[in-house]
Automatic annotation (TrEMBL):
InterPro entries from the UniProt entry: UPF0047_YjbQ-like, YjbQ-like_sf
Organism superkingdom: Bacteria
Any Pfam family the entry gives: YjbQ
Gene3D superfamilies: YjbQ-like (2.60.120.460)
Species this chain originates from: Pedobacter fastidiosus
Protein known as: YjbQ family protein
Family: Belongs to the UPF0047 family.
Length: 139
């Protein structure tokens, strides 16, 4: 069986935001799959997805701090700057983290490890709504 759902996530400020509950609410059919795979894909080039710590919010703050130090804004060497000083750094951050995550499904549940959750990584100051496609398949 294969299930797919497109969703629109509300606009969020720049940062790393847990969206696991929104993903699960959007595709309740995951509970019908005994063994399978779930892929979550973001249809944007200035935001990304990753899986990491879902309990301590300081982890998300540290992620933001690290990526802002690593990929700085206002670099005079960037040619792509007409959409704002946060745009090219957002593309680079997105390329580093990636546009999709894949999670096994076991007995109708996403088979996360302890303390894992799905992050929307918003790299723009005002990125707007974000479009996500969730696809789950299995037996």
């Amino acid at each position: 069986m294969i299930f797919q759902q497109a969703i629109s996530l509300r606009e969020r400020r720049r940062g790393f935001h847990l969206i696991t509950a929104e993903i699960l609410n959007a595709l309740p059919q995951i509970s019908e799959i005994k063994i399978g795979i779930c892929q979550i894909f973001i249809q944007h080039t200035s935001a990304s997805l990753t899986i990491n710590e879902n309990a301590d919010p300081t982890v998300r703050a540290d992620f933001e701090m690290f990526f802002n130090k690593t990929v700085r804004e206002n670099d005079p060497d960037y040619e792509h700057d007409y959409e704002g000083s946060d745009d090219m750094p957002a593309h680079l951050k997105s390329a580093l983290l990636g546009s999709s995550v894949t999670i096994p499904i076991t007995n109708g549940r996403l088979a996360f490890g302890t303390w894992q959750g799905i992050y929307l990584c918003e790299h723009r100051n005002r990125g707007g709504q974000r479009s996500i496609i969730i696809t789950a398949w299995g037996e």
